[in-house]
């Protein structure tokens, strides 16, 4: 899109009825490295392409745990994303304190969307420059949502945002009908395939992607590089026994988590501590 | 010699009605009709600390609850006492909060009414999301705990002990919140005199997966003891049954009680100096 005389202010409409600043904010999302999300009847998987700005630096963190049952992947200005995730965590914790039950992900998404909308209607603010893929559980099961800088939110079976996300979306569009009945391992493999599409020439490894999973009875975890590499290996070598081993491990973990599940509501996992890979978030 | 403050308290009812009288005399009232002396101000004045009502006026007595195989049973009588007088005899002290939760209250009836209004707003706001999620008994129990505790911190308590019972997704919940925010859950709960008279019976006779019959009989047994021994209780009770499908509060009914005892027939027979 090109510069025009109506794009200085977020509070200025163009004659065509557009708010250019909001659209520019959505461009910022498209510049960020890709984030992908997909869900089944029991799990939601988030995957990100991790781009390091130089060989010496580490990559930007794009996967955040919001609560035991909600996590996000972001694309765009990750600084804005950090601020939003702090808000989301605060809302979840407050809800838990008042009601002693987890905040349904759909309600949190609406709250974030309303917060983003405020920034599209104040002359002294600017829209958030980050798109979020929110994975979470509520009473009706697992959900995947997207939050836009415009203040809109959408629910998806599967989606991808960020640069080169179209390649991932093409893969997802081909395969999404089978996602509902996928097992956790199959779902992660689909996510990694989608990431591969976005990476194009690069080799997929645990260094340049990240995966997080949340499911019924399983709290949100960001996979550590060892588990992630195991999934990637199972992908590339197509080894069934590797996958079977993974599945057995996952069953074991899931069983332990379920035994320690003390939540009153059905399905939403209040997970055990120390289960699964080390979680970077507190 | 009449203390001027005592005189004023005797005119208290006139004070409230007669607003034409000079406000100067009515600003500060010394002694109330019930309880220890507590000053309260009709109008905020500089230098006089703001105080809130520190005593209940119209009160309900015990509320009892227990979990049975199909859900939760909660019972209470329908009396509203005004001090030692049974002033109101048709007070509903239990209210369906949503279609799977019931609230019962002992203590100040007006505060119970305020709480039900509060919960109405909460439930409506929750329903307006219309997203397949709704507040269950655990959520409402915790919410009420927060409310009661915060009021206690402001030295302006809602003078109630609340019982919250319900079923959601097959999980039965029965809990209590006091006026200072003490909260807990249990298989059987009582407030007020029920703690001393009914809970011991429950501890002996409650068991897992009681039928509706057994549960109701156990509640009625405890209520009968309360009717005999708690002078604020009356023989007009309601029993509420909360299941996954809904809340059903019975019409008020009376328990069969036995007063044909020798000592009652001629109560003053052995009293010294009676005439």
TrEMBL record, chain A:
Protein keywords: Cytoplasm, Nucleus, Proteasome
GO cellular component assignments: cytoplasm; nucleus; proteasome core complex, alpha-subunit complex
Proteasome alpha-type subunits domain span: 6-28
InterPro entries found in the cross-reference section: Ntn_hydrolases_N, Proteasome_alpha, Proteasome_alpha-type, Proteasome_alpha1, Proteasome_asu_N, Proteasome_sua/b
Keyword Nucleus tagged: yes
GO biological process, one term: proteasome-mediated ubiquitin-dependent protein catabolic process
Pfam families for the chain: Proteasome, Proteasome_A_N
Family indicated by similarity: Belongs to the peptidase T1A family.
Designated name of the protein: Proteasome subunit alpha type
Annotated organism of origin: Physcomitrium patens
């Amino acid at each position: 899109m090109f510069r025009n005389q109506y794009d200085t202010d977020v509070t200025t409409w163009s004659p065509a009825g557009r708010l250019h600043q909001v659209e520019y904010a959505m461009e910022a999302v498209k510049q960020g490295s890709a984030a992908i999300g997909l869900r089944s009847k029991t799990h939601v998987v988030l995957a990100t392409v991790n781009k390091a700005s130089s060989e010496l630096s580490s990559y930007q963190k794009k996967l955040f745990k919001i609560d035991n049952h909600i996590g996000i992947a972001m694309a765009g200005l990750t600084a804005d994303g950090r601020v939003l995730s702090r808000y989301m965590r605060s809302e979840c914790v407050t809800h838990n304190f008042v009601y002693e039950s987890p905040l349904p992900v759909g309600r949190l998404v609406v709250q974030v969307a309303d917060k983003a909308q405020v920034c599209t209607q104040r002359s002294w603010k600017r829209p958030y420059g980050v798109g979020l893929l929110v994975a979470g559980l509520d009473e009706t099961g697992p959900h995947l949502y997207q939050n836009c800088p415009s203040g809109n939110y959408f629910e998806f079976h599967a989606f991808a945002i960020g640069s080169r996300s179209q390649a991932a979306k093409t893969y997802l569009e081909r395969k999404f009908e089978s996602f509902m009945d996928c097992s956790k391992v199959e779902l992660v493999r689909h996510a990694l395939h989608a990431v591969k599409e976005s990476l194009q020439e690069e080799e997929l490894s645990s260094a340049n992607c990240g995966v997080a999973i949340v499911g019924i009875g399983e709290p949100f975890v960001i996979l550590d590089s060892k588990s992630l590499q195991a999934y990637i290996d199972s992908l590339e070598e197509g080894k069934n026994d590797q996958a079977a081993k993974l599945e057995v491990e996952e069953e074991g973990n899931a069983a332990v988590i379920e035994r320690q599940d003390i939540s009153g509501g059905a399905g939403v996992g209040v997970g055990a501590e120390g289960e699964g890979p080390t979680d970077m978030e507190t | 010699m009449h203390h001027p403050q005592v005189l004023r308290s005797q005119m208290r009812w006139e004070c409230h009605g007669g607003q034409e009288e000079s406000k100067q005399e009515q600003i500060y009232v010394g002694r109330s009709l019930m309880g220890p002396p507590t000053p309260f101000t009709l109008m905020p004045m500089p230098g006089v600390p703001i105080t809130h009502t520190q005593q209940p006026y119209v009160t309900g007595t015990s509320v009892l609850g227990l979990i049975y195989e199909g859900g939760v049973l909660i019972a209470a009588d329908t009396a509203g006492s005004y001090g030692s007088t049974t002033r109101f005899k048709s007070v509903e002290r239990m209210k369906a909060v949503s279609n799977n939760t019931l609230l019962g209250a002992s203590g100040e009836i007006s505060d119970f009414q305020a709480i039900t209004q509060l919960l109405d707003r909460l439930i409506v706001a929750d329903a307006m999301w219309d997203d397949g999620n709704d507040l269950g008994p655990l959520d409402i129990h915790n919410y009420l705990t927060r409310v009661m505790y915060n009021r206690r911190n402001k030295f302006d308590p809602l003078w109630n002990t609340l019982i919250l019972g319900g079923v959601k997704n097959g999980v039965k919940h029965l809990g209590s919140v006091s006026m200072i925010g003490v909260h807990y859950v249990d298989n059987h709960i009582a407030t007020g005199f029920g703690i001393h008279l009914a809970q011991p019976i429950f501890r002996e006779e409650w068991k897992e997966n009681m039928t509706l019959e057994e549960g109701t009989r156990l509640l009625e047994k405890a209520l009968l003891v309360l009717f005999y021994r708690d002078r604020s209780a009356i023989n007009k009770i309601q029993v509420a049954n909360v299941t996954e499908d809904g809340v059903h509060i019975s019409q008020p009914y009376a328990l069969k009680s036995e007063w044909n005892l020798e000592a009652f027939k001629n109560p003053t027979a052995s009293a010294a100096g009676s005439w």
